Amino acid sequence: MTIIEHIIANHSKFDKVKPGDIVDIEIDARAARDFGGPNVVKHIEKNNLTIDDVNKTLFTFDTNPTGSDQKYAMNQQIIRIFARKHGIKIFDINKGIGTHTLISEGYSYPGSTSLTTDSHANILGAIGSFGQGMGDKDIAAAFHTGKVWFKVPQSAKINLNGKRPVGITAKDIVLNLLNRFGANSLLGYSVEIYGEEVDKFTLDERITISSMGTEMGTIIVLFTPNKEVMDYCEAATGRKLEPVVADADAEYAEVFDVDLSSFVPMVSLPGKPHDAVNILEAKKVKIDSAFVGSCTNGRMEDLRAVAKVLEGRKVAPGVVLKIVPTTNEFWNQCLEEGLFKIFQAAGAMVSNAGCAGCAAGQVGQNGPGEVTISTGNRNFPGKQGKGKVYLASPATVAASAVAGYITTYDDIPEEPAVFEIDDQIIKIEKSKQAAISEPKSSFVEGRVWYIKEDNIDTDMIFHNRYLTITDIDEMGQYTFDNLEGYEDFAKKAKPGDIVVVQKNFGSGSSRQQAVDCFKSLGVQAVLAESFGAIYERNAINAAFPIVTYKTLEGLDLQDGDKIKVDFEAGEITNLKNNKTVSGEKFSEVQLEIYQNGGLF
Protein backbone atom coordinates (compact mmCIF):
# COMPACT_ATOMS: atom_id res chain seq x y z
CA MET A 1 0.00 0.00 0.00
CA THR A 2 0.94 3.66 -0.42
CA ILE A 3 1.34 6.03 2.53
CA ILE A 4 -2.25 7.29 2.37
CA GLU A 5 -3.60 3.74 2.09
CA HIS A 6 -1.60 2.60 5.14
CA ILE A 7 -2.78 5.57 7.23
CA ILE A 8 -6.43 5.06 6.27
CA ALA A 9 -6.25 1.30 6.85
CA ASN A 10 -4.62 1.86 10.25
CA HIS A 11 -7.56 4.05 11.25
CA SER A 12 -10.30 1.81 9.87
CA LYS A 13 -11.58 -1.70 10.55
CA PHE A 14 -9.77 -2.99 7.46
CA ASP A 15 -6.25 -4.40 7.19
CA LYS A 16 -5.99 -3.27 3.60
CA VAL A 17 -7.74 -0.59 1.53
CA LYS A 18 -7.55 0.34 -2.13
CA PRO A 19 -8.45 3.40 -4.21
CA GLY A 20 -12.19 3.86 -4.50
CA ASP A 21 -13.03 2.18 -1.20
CA ILE A 22 -15.31 4.26 1.01
CA VAL A 23 -14.50 3.62 4.66
CA ASP A 24 -15.13 5.11 8.08
CA ILE A 25 -11.86 6.34 9.58
CA GLU A 26 -11.01 7.30 13.15
CA ILE A 27 -9.81 10.90 13.46
CA ASP A 28 -7.00 11.62 15.93
CA ALA A 29 -7.43 15.41 15.96
CA ARG A 30 -10.79 17.12 15.29
CA ALA A 31 -10.47 20.88 15.01
CA ALA A 32 -12.56 23.88 13.96
CA ARG A 33 -11.48 27.48 13.44
CA ASP A 34 -13.11 30.81 14.16
CA PHE A 35 -14.10 30.53 10.49
CA GLY A 36 -16.47 27.56 10.26
CA GLY A 37 -16.45 26.93 14.00
CA PRO A 38 -19.73 28.76 14.76
CA ASN A 39 -21.54 26.58 12.21
CA VAL A 40 -20.03 23.47 13.79
CA VAL A 41 -21.45 24.63 17.11
CA LYS A 42 -24.81 25.31 15.47
CA HIS A 43 -24.98 21.79 13.96
CA ILE A 44 -24.06 20.14 17.25
CA GLU A 45 -26.60 22.08 19.29
CA LYS A 46 -29.37 21.88 16.70
CA ASN A 47 -29.00 18.10 16.38
CA ASN A 48 -28.36 17.48 20.11
CA LEU A 49 -25.01 15.83 19.39
CA THR A 50 -22.54 14.84 22.08
CA ILE A 51 -18.73 15.20 21.95
CA ASP A 52 -16.92 11.90 21.44
CA ASP A 53 -13.56 12.78 23.07
CA VAL A 54 -12.73 16.29 24.31
CA ASN A 55 -9.04 15.39 24.45
CA LYS A 56 -9.00 15.01 20.67
CA THR A 57 -11.26 18.00 20.01
CA LEU A 58 -10.14 21.63 19.79
CA PHE A 59 -10.80 25.08 18.35
CA THR A 60 -8.21 27.40 16.77
CA PHE A 61 -8.68 31.13 16.23
CA ASP A 62 -6.47 32.18 13.34
CA THR A 63 -8.49 33.82 10.57
CA ASN A 64 -9.12 36.96 12.62
CA PRO A 65 -6.85 36.87 15.67
CA THR A 66 -7.31 40.59 16.22
CA GLY A 67 -11.06 40.13 16.71
CA SER A 68 -11.31 43.47 14.91
CA ASP A 69 -14.48 42.56 13.03
CA GLN A 70 -17.63 42.57 15.18
CA LYS A 71 -19.10 39.49 13.50
CA TYR A 72 -15.86 37.55 13.93
CA ALA A 73 -15.66 38.67 17.56
CA MET A 74 -19.22 37.47 18.09
CA ASN A 75 -18.50 34.12 16.44
CA GLN A 76 -15.36 33.66 18.52
CA GLN A 77 -17.34 34.29 21.68
CA ILE A 78 -20.01 31.78 20.62
CA ILE A 79 -17.24 29.19 20.35
CA ARG A 80 -15.67 30.16 23.69
CA ILE A 81 -18.98 29.69 25.51
CA PHE A 82 -19.55 26.32 23.82
CA ALA A 83 -15.99 25.19 24.59
CA ARG A 84 -16.30 26.10 28.28
CA LYS A 85 -19.55 24.17 28.50
CA HIS A 86 -17.99 21.00 27.04
CA GLY A 87 -14.42 21.30 28.33
CA ILE A 88 -12.91 21.68 24.85
CA LYS A 89 -9.47 23.21 24.39
CA ILE A 90 -9.24 26.56 22.56
CA PHE A 91 -6.05 27.92 21.04
CA ASP A 92 -7.26 31.50 21.12
CA ILE A 93 -6.29 34.64 19.21
CA ASN A 94 -2.80 34.72 20.78
CA LYS A 95 -1.62 31.39 19.32
CA GLY A 96 -1.38 31.54 15.51
CA ILE A 97 -2.36 29.35 12.56
CA GLY A 98 -4.21 26.20 13.59
CA THR A 99 -2.57 23.68 11.26
CA HIS A 100 0.85 24.68 12.57
CA THR A 101 -0.46 24.49 16.14
CA LEU A 102 -1.65 20.92 15.50
CA ILE A 103 1.96 19.99 14.75
CA SER A 104 3.70 22.03 17.46
CA GLU A 105 1.27 20.93 20.19
CA GLY A 106 1.50 17.24 19.24
CA TYR A 107 -2.11 16.79 18.10
CA SER A 108 -0.87 15.75 14.66
CA TYR A 109 2.14 13.50 14.14
CA PRO A 110 3.50 11.06 11.53
CA GLY A 111 0.84 8.49 10.65
CA SER A 112 -2.01 10.34 12.38
CA THR A 113 -5.31 11.67 11.01
CA SER A 114 -6.62 15.21 11.49
CA LEU A 115 -9.60 17.27 10.34
CA THR A 116 -10.21 20.99 10.48
CA THR A 117 -12.31 23.58 8.67
CA ASP A 118 -9.09 24.82 7.03
CA SER A 119 -8.79 23.84 3.35
CA HIS A 120 -5.01 23.75 3.83
CA ALA A 121 -5.12 21.04 6.48
CA ASN A 122 -3.27 18.89 3.95
CA ILE A 123 -0.24 20.88 5.13
CA LEU A 124 0.13 17.97 7.58
CA GLY A 125 1.45 15.85 4.73
CA ALA A 126 4.74 17.62 5.50
CA ILE A 127 5.15 15.34 8.54
CA GLY A 128 3.73 12.22 6.87
CA SER A 129 0.31 12.74 8.46
CA PHE A 130 -3.15 12.69 6.87
CA GLY A 131 -4.79 16.10 7.22
CA GLN A 132 -7.98 17.21 5.52
CA GLY A 133 -10.01 20.37 5.38
CA MET A 134 -13.72 19.65 5.48
CA GLY A 135 -16.96 21.57 5.78
CA ASP A 136 -18.73 22.30 9.03
CA LYS A 137 -21.15 19.35 8.73
CA ASP A 138 -18.25 16.90 8.48
CA ILE A 139 -16.44 18.50 11.40
CA ALA A 140 -19.57 18.42 13.56
CA ALA A 141 -20.00 14.73 12.73
CA ALA A 142 -16.35 14.10 13.65
CA PHE A 143 -16.77 15.95 16.97
CA HIS A 144 -19.73 13.69 17.69
CA THR A 145 -18.57 10.25 16.48
CA GLY A 146 -14.79 10.61 16.21
CA LYS A 147 -15.03 9.33 12.65
CA VAL A 148 -15.85 10.41 9.10
CA TRP A 149 -16.43 8.53 5.87
CA PHE A 150 -13.71 8.94 3.29
CA LYS A 151 -13.06 7.68 -0.21
CA VAL A 152 -9.56 6.23 -0.56
CA PRO A 153 -7.86 8.32 -3.27
CA GLN A 154 -5.54 7.16 -5.98
CA SER A 155 -1.88 7.83 -5.30
CA ALA A 156 0.74 9.44 -7.52
CA LYS A 157 4.48 9.54 -7.03
CA ILE A 158 6.75 12.44 -7.99
CA ASN A 159 10.47 11.70 -8.15
CA LEU A 160 12.50 14.91 -7.94
CA ASN A 161 15.74 13.90 -9.67
CA GLY A 162 19.03 15.76 -9.84
CA LYS A 163 20.65 18.37 -7.64
CA ARG A 164 18.83 21.33 -6.21
CA PRO A 165 20.13 24.53 -7.83
CA VAL A 166 21.71 27.12 -5.55
CA GLY A 167 19.20 29.75 -4.39
CA ILE A 168 16.09 27.71 -5.24
CA THR A 169 13.74 27.92 -2.26
CA ALA A 170 10.90 25.60 -1.27
CA LYS A 171 8.44 28.16 -2.66
CA ASP A 172 10.28 28.10 -5.98
CA ILE A 173 10.07 24.30 -5.96
CA VAL A 174 6.31 24.21 -5.43
CA LEU A 175 5.74 26.97 -8.02
CA ASN A 176 7.79 24.96 -10.52
CA LEU A 177 5.58 21.96 -9.73
CA LEU A 178 2.46 24.09 -10.21
CA ASN A 179 3.83 25.21 -13.56
CA ARG A 180 4.36 21.54 -14.49
CA PHE A 181 1.11 20.03 -13.20
CA GLY A 182 -1.35 22.94 -13.18
CA ALA A 183 -4.47 23.09 -11.04
CA ASN A 184 -6.18 19.85 -12.03
CA SER A 185 -3.90 17.24 -13.61
CA LEU A 186 -3.32 15.85 -10.08
CA LEU A 187 -6.90 16.54 -8.99
CA GLY A 188 -8.03 14.11 -6.31
CA TYR A 189 -4.68 12.32 -6.00
CA SER A 190 -2.66 11.71 -2.88
CA VAL A 191 0.84 12.68 -3.99
CA GLU A 192 4.09 11.36 -2.52
CA ILE A 193 7.37 13.17 -3.26
CA TYR A 194 10.72 11.39 -3.25
CA GLY A 195 14.35 12.10 -4.15
CA GLU A 196 17.84 12.36 -2.75
CA GLU A 197 17.48 16.12 -2.32
CA VAL A 198 13.95 15.68 -0.93
CA ASP A 199 15.36 13.72 2.01
CA LYS A 200 17.30 16.87 2.95
CA PHE A 201 14.26 19.17 2.93
CA THR A 202 13.70 20.82 6.31
CA LEU A 203 10.35 20.74 8.12
CA ASP A 204 9.69 24.35 7.11
CA GLU A 205 10.41 23.56 3.46
CA ARG A 206 8.14 20.52 3.49
CA ILE A 207 5.35 22.62 5.00
CA THR A 208 5.69 25.20 2.21
CA ILE A 209 5.38 22.53 -0.48
CA SER A 210 2.59 20.51 1.18
CA SER A 211 0.54 23.62 1.90
CA MET A 212 0.18 24.35 -1.82
CA GLY A 213 -1.10 20.86 -2.60
CA THR A 214 -4.54 22.47 -2.38
CA GLU A 215 -3.63 24.79 -5.27
CA MET A 216 -2.54 21.75 -7.32
CA GLY A 217 -5.91 20.11 -6.66
CA THR A 218 -4.41 17.22 -4.68
CA ILE A 219 -5.99 15.55 -1.68
CA ILE A 220 -2.61 15.84 0.03
CA VAL A 221 1.14 16.04 -0.70
CA LEU A 222 2.95 13.56 1.55
CA PHE A 223 6.59 13.32 2.55
CA THR A 224 8.25 10.40 4.32
CA PRO A 225 9.57 11.98 7.54
CA ASN A 226 13.34 12.34 7.92
CA LYS A 227 15.17 12.41 11.27
CA GLU A 228 14.63 16.16 11.78
CA VAL A 229 10.87 15.79 11.37
CA MET A 230 10.70 12.71 13.61
CA ASP A 231 12.75 14.42 16.34
CA TYR A 232 10.49 17.49 16.21
CA CYS A 233 7.27 15.47 16.40
CA GLU A 234 8.56 13.21 19.17
CA ALA A 235 9.46 16.29 21.21
CA ALA A 236 5.98 17.76 20.55
CA THR A 237 4.12 14.58 21.52
CA GLY A 238 6.49 13.49 24.28
CA ARG A 239 6.64 9.92 23.01
CA LYS A 240 8.42 7.63 20.57
CA LEU A 241 6.83 7.59 17.11
CA GLU A 242 7.05 5.37 14.06
CA PRO A 243 6.65 6.88 10.59
CA VAL A 244 4.25 5.36 8.07
CA VAL A 245 6.05 4.53 4.83
CA ALA A 246 4.92 3.19 1.47
CA ASP A 247 5.56 -0.47 0.71
CA ALA A 248 8.30 -1.23 -1.80
CA ASP A 249 5.66 -2.74 -4.09
CA ALA A 250 3.06 0.00 -3.55
CA GLU A 251 0.92 0.66 -6.61
CA TYR A 252 0.66 4.20 -7.99
CA ALA A 253 -1.81 5.40 -10.61
CA GLU A 254 0.84 7.79 -11.94
CA VAL A 255 4.63 8.11 -11.54
CA PHE A 256 6.35 11.31 -12.66
CA ASP A 257 10.09 11.91 -12.99
CA VAL A 258 10.85 15.61 -12.67
CA ASP A 259 14.27 17.24 -13.12
CA LEU A 260 14.87 19.29 -9.98
CA SER A 261 18.14 20.63 -11.39
CA SER A 262 16.18 22.53 -14.06
CA PHE A 263 14.09 24.51 -11.55
CA VAL A 264 14.34 28.31 -11.64
CA PRO A 265 13.11 31.17 -9.41
CA MET A 266 9.39 31.58 -10.06
CA VAL A 267 6.41 33.84 -9.46
CA SER A 268 2.71 33.18 -9.96
CA LEU A 269 1.00 35.78 -12.08
CA PRO A 270 -2.12 37.48 -10.64
CA GLY A 271 -5.32 35.46 -10.62
CA LYS A 272 -4.08 31.87 -10.70
CA PRO A 273 -1.52 30.18 -8.40
CA HIS A 274 -0.78 27.65 -11.15
CA ASP A 275 0.01 30.42 -13.66
CA ALA A 276 3.60 30.25 -12.45
CA VAL A 277 6.42 31.58 -14.65
CA ASN A 278 10.14 32.20 -14.55
CA ILE A 279 10.60 35.34 -12.50
CA LEU A 280 12.31 36.95 -15.49
CA GLU A 281 8.87 37.25 -17.11
CA ALA A 282 7.63 39.46 -14.26
CA LYS A 283 10.86 41.24 -13.36
CA LYS A 284 10.68 45.02 -12.99
CA VAL A 285 6.88 45.04 -12.46
CA LYS A 286 6.28 47.99 -10.13
CA ILE A 287 4.65 47.06 -6.81
CA ASP A 288 2.65 48.96 -4.20
CA SER A 289 2.98 46.47 -1.37
CA ALA A 290 4.58 43.25 -0.22
CA PHE A 291 3.38 40.60 2.21
CA VAL A 292 5.28 37.89 4.12
CA GLY A 293 3.23 35.33 6.02
CA SER A 294 0.42 32.75 5.63
CA CYS A 295 0.48 29.05 6.48
CA THR A 296 2.82 28.60 3.50
CA ASN A 297 5.67 30.98 4.34
CA GLY A 298 5.60 32.50 7.80
CA ARG A 299 7.90 30.14 9.71
CA MET A 300 11.36 30.89 11.12
CA GLU A 301 13.36 29.92 8.05
CA ASP A 302 11.16 32.23 6.00
CA LEU A 303 11.46 35.11 8.45
CA ARG A 304 15.24 34.73 8.72
CA ALA A 305 15.50 34.81 4.92
CA VAL A 306 13.55 38.08 4.92
CA ALA A 307 15.74 39.56 7.65
CA LYS A 308 18.89 38.63 5.70
CA VAL A 309 17.63 40.63 2.71
CA LEU A 310 16.36 43.60 4.75
CA GLU A 311 19.31 44.07 7.09
CA GLY A 312 20.91 47.44 6.39
CA ARG A 313 18.30 48.28 3.73
CA LYS A 314 15.05 50.25 3.52
CA VAL A 315 11.70 49.44 1.95
CA ALA A 316 11.26 51.49 -1.23
CA PRO A 317 9.39 54.82 -0.93
CA GLY A 318 5.64 54.37 -1.31
CA VAL A 319 5.83 50.59 -0.82
CA VAL A 320 4.27 48.93 2.24
CA LEU A 321 5.81 45.70 3.58
CA LYS A 322 3.67 43.67 5.99
CA ILE A 323 5.13 40.73 7.94
CA VAL A 324 3.03 38.24 9.91
CA PRO A 325 4.62 35.23 11.65
CA THR A 326 2.73 31.95 11.46
CA THR A 327 2.60 31.29 15.20
CA ASN A 328 3.20 33.15 18.43
CA GLU A 329 6.17 30.84 19.07
CA PHE A 330 7.88 32.24 15.96
CA TRP A 331 6.79 35.78 16.87
CA ASN A 332 8.63 35.45 20.19
CA GLN A 333 11.62 33.85 18.46
CA CYS A 334 11.82 36.83 16.09
CA LEU A 335 11.84 39.10 19.11
CA GLU A 336 14.62 37.11 20.80
CA GLU A 337 16.78 36.91 17.67
CA GLY A 338 16.43 40.63 16.92
CA LEU A 339 14.58 40.12 13.65
CA PHE A 340 11.87 42.61 14.56
CA LYS A 341 14.50 45.35 14.94
CA ILE A 342 15.68 44.60 11.41
CA PHE A 343 12.12 44.58 10.06
CA GLN A 344 11.17 47.85 11.72
CA ALA A 345 14.44 49.57 10.82
CA ALA A 346 13.73 48.68 7.20
CA GLY A 347 10.26 50.25 7.47
CA ALA A 348 8.18 47.08 7.59
CA MET A 349 4.99 46.63 9.60
CA VAL A 350 4.81 43.57 11.87
CA SER A 351 1.54 42.07 13.13
CA ASN A 352 0.50 39.38 15.56
CA ALA A 353 0.53 35.76 14.39
CA GLY A 354 -2.31 34.44 12.25
CA CYS A 355 -3.57 33.77 8.72
CA ALA A 356 -3.33 37.47 7.83
CA GLY A 357 -3.61 38.26 4.11
CA CYS A 358 -5.65 35.16 3.29
CA ALA A 359 -8.51 36.32 5.53
CA ALA A 360 -10.54 39.43 4.77
CA GLY A 361 -10.05 42.25 7.24
CA GLN A 362 -6.55 41.29 8.36
CA VAL A 363 -3.06 42.59 7.68
CA GLY A 364 -2.09 41.79 4.09
CA GLN A 365 -5.23 42.76 2.18
CA ASN A 366 -4.83 45.18 -0.72
CA GLY A 367 -7.02 47.81 -2.36
CA PRO A 368 -8.32 48.47 -5.88
CA GLY A 369 -5.47 48.93 -8.37
CA GLU A 370 -2.85 47.89 -5.81
CA VAL A 371 -0.08 45.52 -6.96
CA THR A 372 1.16 43.17 -4.24
CA ILE A 373 3.85 40.51 -4.14
CA SER A 374 3.01 37.90 -1.52
CA THR A 375 4.30 34.68 0.03
CA GLY A 376 0.71 33.40 0.32
CA ASN A 377 -0.67 30.32 -1.40
CA ARG A 378 -3.56 31.90 -3.29
CA ASN A 379 -3.93 34.89 -5.55
CA PHE A 380 -7.44 34.30 -6.86
CA PRO A 381 -9.24 37.54 -7.76
CA GLY A 382 -10.45 39.13 -4.54
CA LYS A 383 -8.78 36.62 -2.22
CA GLN A 384 -6.22 39.02 -0.80
CA GLY A 385 -8.12 42.17 -1.63
CA LYS A 386 -9.22 44.13 -4.68
CA GLY A 387 -5.79 44.47 -6.29
CA LYS A 388 -3.41 42.18 -8.18
CA VAL A 389 -1.31 39.64 -6.29
CA TYR A 390 1.89 37.91 -7.42
CA LEU A 391 3.11 34.88 -5.41
CA ALA A 392 6.79 34.36 -4.66
CA SER A 393 9.32 33.21 -2.06
CA PRO A 394 10.06 35.22 1.11
CA ALA A 395 13.48 36.30 -0.18
CA THR A 396 11.96 37.48 -3.47
CA VAL A 397 9.19 39.37 -1.66
CA ALA A 398 11.69 41.13 0.62
CA ALA A 399 13.99 41.99 -2.29
CA SER A 400 11.07 43.36 -4.29
CA ALA A 401 9.94 45.50 -1.35
CA VAL A 402 13.39 47.10 -1.25
CA ALA A 403 13.65 47.51 -5.03
CA GLY A 404 10.10 48.82 -5.47
CA TYR A 405 9.56 46.28 -8.24
CA ILE A 406 9.67 42.50 -8.62
CA THR A 407 13.23 41.22 -8.49
CA THR A 408 15.43 38.53 -6.92
CA TYR A 409 17.51 38.87 -3.74
CA ASP A 410 20.74 38.86 -5.80
CA ASP A 411 19.63 41.71 -8.07
CA ILE A 412 18.57 44.54 -5.76
CA PRO A 413 19.32 48.00 -7.25
CA GLU A 414 21.33 50.66 -5.48
CA GLU A 415 18.42 53.10 -5.85
CA PRO A 416 14.80 51.90 -5.58
CA ALA A 417 12.12 52.61 -8.13
CA VAL A 418 9.72 55.37 -7.14
CA PHE A 419 6.17 56.17 -8.15
CA GLU A 420 5.48 58.83 -10.71
CA ILE A 421 2.37 60.94 -10.10
CA ASP A 422 0.97 60.09 -13.54
CA ASP A 423 1.33 56.38 -12.84
CA GLN A 424 -0.71 56.70 -9.66
CA ILE A 425 -3.48 58.62 -11.44
CA ILE A 426 -3.67 55.98 -14.18
CA LYS A 427 -3.91 53.23 -11.55
CA ILE A 428 -6.72 55.00 -9.73
CA GLU A 429 -8.66 55.54 -12.96
CA LYS A 430 -8.25 51.87 -13.96
CA SER A 431 -9.42 50.69 -10.55
CA LYS A 432 -12.56 52.84 -10.86
CA GLN A 433 -13.44 51.07 -14.16
CA ALA A 434 -12.56 47.83 -13.07
CA ALA A 435 -34.42 24.90 1.76
CA ILE A 436 -37.11 23.22 3.12
CA SER A 437 -36.60 19.44 2.73
CA GLU A 438 -39.10 17.78 0.38
CA PRO A 439 -39.44 14.21 -0.94
CA LYS A 440 -36.44 13.60 -3.17
CA SER A 441 -36.87 12.68 -6.82
CA SER A 442 -34.15 10.61 -8.52
CA PHE A 443 -33.97 13.16 -11.33
CA VAL A 444 -34.29 16.88 -11.99
CA GLU A 445 -35.14 18.95 -15.05
CA GLY A 446 -34.21 22.57 -15.53
CA ARG A 447 -32.77 25.42 -17.58
CA VAL A 448 -29.01 25.31 -18.07
CA TRP A 449 -26.44 27.94 -17.18
CA TYR A 450 -23.52 26.65 -19.31
CA ILE A 451 -20.35 28.27 -17.91
CA LYS A 452 -17.41 27.05 -19.99
CA GLU A 453 -14.65 27.65 -17.45
CA ASP A 454 -12.19 25.50 -15.48
CA ASN A 455 -11.01 26.11 -11.90
CA ILE A 456 -13.93 28.20 -10.64
CA ASP A 457 -12.86 28.48 -7.00
CA THR A 458 -14.90 29.14 -3.89
CA ASP A 459 -13.91 32.82 -3.79
CA MET A 460 -15.50 33.22 -7.22
CA ILE A 461 -18.59 31.32 -6.09
CA PHE A 462 -19.03 32.96 -2.67
CA HIS A 463 -16.46 35.58 -1.77
CA ASN A 464 -14.72 35.55 1.60
CA ARG A 465 -16.05 39.00 2.50
CA TYR A 466 -19.43 37.31 3.10
CA LEU A 467 -18.13 34.49 5.30
CA THR A 468 -19.80 35.81 8.45
CA ILE A 469 -23.21 35.11 6.88
CA THR A 470 -24.65 31.91 8.35
CA ASP A 471 -28.32 32.31 7.34
CA ILE A 472 -28.80 30.34 4.12
CA ASP A 473 -31.64 32.64 3.04
CA GLU A 474 -29.16 35.54 2.82
CA MET A 475 -26.51 33.65 0.84
CA GLY A 476 -28.08 33.39 -2.61
CA GLN A 477 -27.77 37.08 -3.47
CA TYR A 478 -23.95 36.83 -3.44
CA THR A 479 -23.58 33.77 -5.69
CA PHE A 480 -20.92 34.21 -8.40
CA ASP A 481 -20.63 37.95 -7.73
CA ASN A 482 -16.84 37.51 -7.93
CA LEU A 483 -16.91 35.47 -11.17
CA GLU A 484 -16.15 37.70 -14.14
CA GLY A 485 -19.09 37.87 -16.52
CA TYR A 486 -21.54 36.39 -14.01
CA GLU A 487 -21.71 39.12 -11.37
CA ASP A 488 -25.47 39.40 -11.97
CA PHE A 489 -26.09 35.64 -11.83
CA ALA A 490 -28.11 35.85 -8.61
CA LYS A 491 -30.50 38.40 -10.14
CA LYS A 492 -31.06 36.35 -13.30
CA ALA A 493 -31.09 32.81 -11.90
CA LYS A 494 -34.46 31.16 -11.35
CA PRO A 495 -35.50 28.32 -9.03
CA GLY A 496 -35.04 25.05 -10.91
CA ASP A 497 -31.98 26.15 -12.89
CA ILE A 498 -29.02 23.78 -13.36
CA VAL A 499 -25.41 24.99 -13.54
CA VAL A 500 -23.01 23.21 -15.91
CA VAL A 501 -19.29 23.98 -15.67
CA GLN A 502 -15.99 22.30 -16.59
CA LYS A 503 -12.98 21.06 -14.55
CA ASN A 504 -12.13 21.55 -10.87
CA PHE A 505 -15.27 23.39 -9.78
CA GLY A 506 -15.22 24.54 -6.16
CA SER A 507 -11.46 24.41 -5.60
CA GLY A 508 -10.05 26.50 -2.79
CA SER A 509 -11.61 27.18 0.60
CA SER A 510 -13.67 24.78 2.72
CA ARG A 511 -16.58 27.24 3.03
CA GLN A 512 -20.01 25.58 3.11
CA GLN A 513 -21.59 28.79 1.80
CA ALA A 514 -20.23 28.00 -1.68
CA VAL A 515 -22.69 25.09 -1.75
CA ASP A 516 -25.54 26.62 0.23
CA CYS A 517 -25.72 29.76 -1.91
CA PHE A 518 -27.03 27.63 -4.80
CA LYS A 519 -29.60 25.99 -2.53
CA SER A 520 -30.64 29.47 -1.41
CA LEU A 521 -31.41 30.42 -5.03
CA GLY A 522 -33.23 27.17 -5.75
CA VAL A 523 -30.58 25.92 -8.19
CA GLN A 524 -31.23 22.18 -8.51
CA ALA A 525 -27.78 20.81 -9.34
CA VAL A 526 -24.25 21.51 -10.53
CA LEU A 527 -22.62 19.38 -13.25
CA ALA A 528 -18.86 19.43 -13.78
CA GLU A 529 -16.02 17.37 -15.23
CA SER A 530 -14.49 17.37 -11.75
CA PHE A 531 -14.95 19.02 -8.37
CA GLY A 532 -12.61 20.26 -5.66
CA ALA A 533 -12.34 17.53 -3.01
CA ILE A 534 -13.74 19.57 -0.11
CA TYR A 535 -16.49 21.07 -2.26
CA GLU A 536 -17.57 17.59 -3.32
CA ARG A 537 -17.90 16.49 0.31
CA ASN A 538 -19.74 19.64 1.33
CA ALA A 539 -22.26 19.25 -1.49
CA ILE A 540 -22.89 15.57 -0.78
CA ASN A 541 -23.28 16.18 2.95
CA ALA A 542 -25.73 19.02 2.28
CA ALA A 543 -27.79 16.78 -0.04
CA PHE A 544 -27.10 19.17 -2.89
CA PRO A 545 -26.90 17.23 -6.16
CA ILE A 546 -23.57 17.34 -7.97
CA VAL A 547 -22.82 15.12 -10.95
CA THR A 548 -19.53 14.58 -12.78
CA TYR A 549 -19.32 13.89 -16.49
CA LYS A 550 -16.49 12.90 -18.83
CA THR A 551 -17.77 14.75 -21.88
CA LEU A 552 -20.85 16.62 -23.08
CA GLU A 553 -20.01 16.06 -26.74
CA GLY A 554 -23.09 14.68 -28.43
CA LEU A 555 -25.52 16.74 -26.35
CA ASP A 556 -25.17 19.84 -28.54
CA LEU A 557 -25.70 21.73 -25.31
CA GLN A 558 -26.30 25.47 -25.42
CA ASP A 559 -26.77 28.02 -22.67
CA GLY A 560 -30.48 28.11 -21.81
CA ASP A 561 -31.30 24.58 -23.00
CA LYS A 562 -33.46 22.43 -20.74
CA ILE A 563 -31.86 19.21 -19.53
CA LYS A 564 -32.82 16.20 -17.43
CA VAL A 565 -30.31 14.71 -14.98
CA ASP A 566 -30.97 11.21 -13.61
CA PHE A 567 -28.90 10.73 -10.46
CA GLU A 568 -29.37 6.97 -10.11
CA ALA A 569 -28.77 6.15 -13.77
CA GLY A 570 -26.11 8.81 -14.23
CA GLU A 571 -27.72 10.04 -17.44
CA ILE A 572 -27.80 13.61 -18.77
CA THR A 573 -30.37 14.36 -21.47
CA ASN A 574 -30.82 17.49 -23.54
CA LEU A 575 -34.62 17.77 -23.74
CA LYS A 576 -34.34 20.03 -26.80
CA ASN A 577 -33.04 17.18 -28.97
CA ASN A 578 -33.40 14.12 -26.68
CA LYS A 579 -29.69 13.38 -26.93
CA THR A 580 -28.18 11.65 -23.88
CA VAL A 581 -24.68 11.21 -22.44
CA SER A 582 -23.50 9.28 -19.39
CA GLY A 583 -22.36 10.94 -16.21
CA GLU A 584 -21.29 9.38 -12.92
CA LYS A 585 -24.29 8.06 -11.06
CA PHE A 586 -24.69 8.72 -7.35
CA SER A 587 -22.67 6.40 -5.12
CA GLU A 588 -24.52 4.47 -2.43
CA VAL A 589 -23.26 6.95 0.17
CA GLN A 590 -24.26 10.00 -1.89
CA LEU A 591 -27.71 8.57 -2.63
CA GLU A 592 -28.32 7.71 1.02
CA ILE A 593 -27.36 11.20 2.21
CA TYR A 594 -29.38 12.79 -0.61
CA GLN A 595 -32.53 10.82 0.26
CA ASN A 596 -31.96 11.59 3.94
CA GLY A 597 -31.95 15.32 3.19
CA GLY A 598 -28.39 15.76 4.45
CA LEU A 599 -25.71 14.20 6.62
CA PHE A 600 -27.81 14.72 9.74
Provide a compact summary of the structure.
This protein is an alpha/beta fold and 600 residues long. Helix content is 29%, strand content 18%.
Describe what this molecule looks like in 3D.
With 600 residues, the chain is α/β, with parallel strands linked by helices. The protein has 3 domains: 3-262, Aconitase, domain 3, CATH 3.30.499; 269-431, 2-Layer Sandwich (Aconitase, domain 3); 443-596, Aconitase, domain 4, CATH 3.20.19.10. Helices cover 29% and strands 18% of the residues. The protein is built from 19 helices and 25 strands. Helix 2 crosses helix 5 (136-145), helix 6 runs parallel beside helix 7 (203-211) and helix 9 packs parallel to helix 12. The longest helix has 17 residues, at 70-86. The protein is globular. The mean pLDDT is 94.
